[in-house]
Known about the structure:
The chain has a single domain, classed as Rossmann fold (3-Layer(aba) Sandwich). The protein is globular and about 50 Å long. An eight-stranded mixed sheet has the order 1-2-4-3-5-6-7-8, sandwiched between helices. By secondary structure, it is an alpha/beta fold. Helix 4 crosses helix 10 and helix 5 crosses helix 6. 35% of the residues lie in helices and 19% in strands. It has ten helices and eight strands.
Amino acid sequence: MDRRVRLLGRAMRRTASISSMSPQDIERAQQQGAPPAVLGRLFGRRRRGVEVDDRVVDLPGGRRRLRVYRPSAASRENRPVVVNFHGGGWVLGSVEGGDWLCSNVAADVDAVVVSVDYRLAPADRFPVAVEDCYEATSWVAEHADELGGDAGPLAVMGDSAGGNLAAVVSLLARDRSGPAIASQILIYPATDLTLSSPSLTSNADQPVLSTDEVRAFRGHYLGDDASAARDPRASPLLATDHAGLPPALVQVAEHDPIRDDGSRYAEALRAAGVPVRFTEYVGMPHGYLSLPGVCRSAPQALHEVVTELRDRLVVHPRPR
């Protein structure tokens, strides 16, 4: 593993490990939201030529903020739509932290990207984030025209906990008869909160994320309900049926305790007849796509995401 990644992981663990954060520390981190501007080189900066619009919308569960990214240059009507769910273990993270990924996808796919500010644990435990993300995805599908997007099938995308939510929203969309989803982009996703993946043992003490931290995030998200981990809305790998789900891109990192969550989910999707592209990024830790300033595979991984979305999202002409 790159020495810079090791040093970064150690520094992050000393200053912001979820395992050692008090409830007050978590609350302060959630209020802080975006990473400091001085860390732009590490986390990446918003792409030039992309407009960003924050709006608050009324959903069945309450008012939620959406961050909308659109390329500034005129190109075409009816851009494809991608809904993004940020990472952070369902406890940390923010839409601001996804600026680099979302703005680059918007520019390179020529798409409208909508990032969801879902509610966080421990104040709002499972399944609050799930319902926020599903409701937001349904709202975006219904209002695609006013966002400058295509009213046809959209894509869902997420990293880490966001990858979990993207997989779960895809399941719910199938089982609740919509909205139509053409692609699911699952970036080092958590898919089994029973913590049964072998990599949790073999990669227990890795930079950026350790198995102890995985357990801590799960505890904040699920609380004391032991049965919740087997609910497919928490562990999409445990769904009884994966048939009929949208085509998937699944990316994992070699040095990640939840690496096998992604590989096992890709296998389950393939076994159910779902088209899957699976890539393991060698030498990378959990979170590599959120750290383009230090992880050398981030540009390649972004290119793979963009290519998959271009291939899967077909823009439908407006009815005349």
